[in-house]
Amino acid sequence: MPKIQVGEVNLNYDVAGKGEPLLMIMGLGASSAAWNPELVAELARTFRVITFDNRGTGQSDKPDVPYSIEMFADDAAGLLGKLEVPRAHIFGVSMGGMIAQEFALRHPGRTATLTLGCTMAGGAHAVPPPLESLQFLTAPRGELAPEEMVRRSWPFTYTPKYTAENRAVLEASIARLLKHPTPPFAFQRQLEGTYTLKTFDRLPQIKAPTLVVTGDADVLIPAKNSEIIAAQIPGAKLHIIAGVGHGFMDEGRAAFLKVFLPFVKSHPQQGAEGELD
Predict the structure, then answer these.
(1) How many domains in the chain?
(2) If DSSP states are collapsed to H, E and C, what string results for 64-117?
(3) 79 lies in which domain range?
(4) Model-level pTM?
(5) What is the separation of C-alpha 85 from the centre of its chain, rounded to a whole number of angstroms?
(6) What is the pLDDT of residues 218-259, one digit of tens each?
(7) From CA 264, how far away is CA 35, in angstroms rounded?
(8) Helix 95-106 vs helix 184-194: angle between axes, to the nearest 10 degrees?
(9) Residue 115 CB: number of other CB atoms within 10 A?
């Protein structure tokens, strides 16, 4: 994967496929390696898929300074600028969905469509996860082997049924996920960055066609948060996938693609309005 300088950081990115650009934004503590290669390959049949490592993860720079959702959003917009991509379909999950909200608000001219996966709007209107999930998120990193931390994340990412039936696949993915692990200090910086999320009151300003999607068994960011977001964004479509957890892109991939692909294709970029910001 090549790197490109965006502002004061170098961001690691990759491009796959041809077609209208689709920028995919990953979540807390995870590099772009967390995107399932099968999902990326499927999307690359239709789109020019752009994935990248948020600052603090993967092979991107990891400055030990305060992070914010606004900072992440500007990194993403800066990456598109450097790649000479004037406008893209934006898809973010979890913290990446927080970043995607801020991206659409700060850079509306670059947002052809917006897809918000398993995320929340922050502030008093957010529905918190169960205590056990909060304890996992805020537990000190570095005390356990990285492989064990990945395994401990599975109950918060997938349903017990999916984990039991796909244990071999999940075990095989560990090497990919940990090829460039996120240092504990960078995870903490990202976690603290999520506390800066405050989009609820501004969500009605989003003009891009929006799809909000999640799993009804999400124990990390409860599905109620997606309902709240969809109600705030004019014309937003809400799709809740039954029987899947936070990792709906893997556990419910077929159901996700069934709604995502028609949604994005129904809003070709040549029909998107607005000037670049």
Answers:
(1) 1
(2) CCCCCHHHHHHHHHHHHHHCCCCCEEEEEECHHHHHHHHHHHHCHHHEEEEEEE
(3) 3-271
(4) 0.96
(5) 19
(6) 999 999 999 999 999 999 999 999 999 999 999 999 999 999
(7) 19
(8) 50
(9) 26
